[in-house]
Amino acid sequence: MYKAVIFDLDNTLLNYSSSEWESMQNTVNGHEISQSETFTWEQFWGSFQKINMRYWNERNKAGHHILEVLEYSFRDTLKELELDCSISNALANRYWKLFCHTCHFEEYAQDLLANLHENYQLAIISNGIGEAQRSRLQVGKIAHYFDELIISDEVGYWKPDKKIFETALAQLNIHHTEALFIGDSLHDDYHGSINAGIDFCFYNPKGLLLEKEMRPTYTIEHLQEVKEILIEG
């Protein structure tokens, strides 16, 4: 019998991809990036994503703040496209402000949280940045549903390290068998749950095929299926 349901946040409850895309569109709108005829939006976006992922993956080792990650990503993207990179800092700050105030939900997320919060402890374990995650939950008016928010840059551990899961269990004051963790990442969420001995529900809206050795406790394509799992459990 589960006492708590713990969620990943991005692309599990909140649609990170939509928020990122919208924030970037609004960031570059009005700048020469959006007015240039030498390349397409798709070229800019593809270049930025590739460069940004590299800086994001290196941020902990390099000790970069998120605004530095964004500034360097804009700078290198603009250089690659042979545009003026002196606006990189301004673009980074504008993007971050917009992103922190943008909230798009995964389908059924709001209904699920409203249904669960009276009967279960609810928590989030996220590898994101605390400033953004907390702000987006407030913007989406769902922050009040959660008993605990365990965010990697605030606790010093990152999924799939079992320590961040153990931190959540300790804050909720429950045993690992009393929690269900729901997430969309096989690397971070599946392996993290397994490492911590927590039942894992794989949120798989795209119908990805699993490798044979991967055996999540549950697999769902829609968040509304969580209620059925909890009734059966």
TrEMBL record:
<dbReference type="InterPro" id="IPR011951">
    <property type="entry name" value="HAD-SF_hydro_IA_YjjG/PynA"/>
</dbReference>
<dbReference type="InterPro" id="IPR006439">
    <property type="entry name" value="HAD-SF_hydro_IA"/>
</dbReference>
<dbReference type="Pfam" id="PF13419">
    <property type="entry name" value="HAD_2"/>
</dbReference>
<dbReference type="InterPro" id="IPR023214">
    <property type="entry name" value="HAD_sf"/>
</dbReference>
<dbReference type="InterPro" id="IPR041492">
    <property type="entry name" value="HAD_2"/>
</dbReference>
<dbReference type="InterPro" id="IPR052550">
    <property type="entry name" value="Pyrimidine_5'-ntase_YjjG"/>
</dbReference>
<protein>
    <submittedName>
        <fullName>Uncharacterized protein</fullName>
    </submittedName>
</protein>
<dbReference type="InterPro" id="IPR023198">
    <property type="entry name" value="PGP-like_dom2"/>
</dbReference>
<dbReference type="InterPro" id="IPR036412">
    <property type="entry name" value="HAD-like_sf"/>
</dbReference>
<dbReference type="GO" id="GO:0008253">
    <property type="term" value="F:5'-nucleotidase activity"/>
</dbReference>
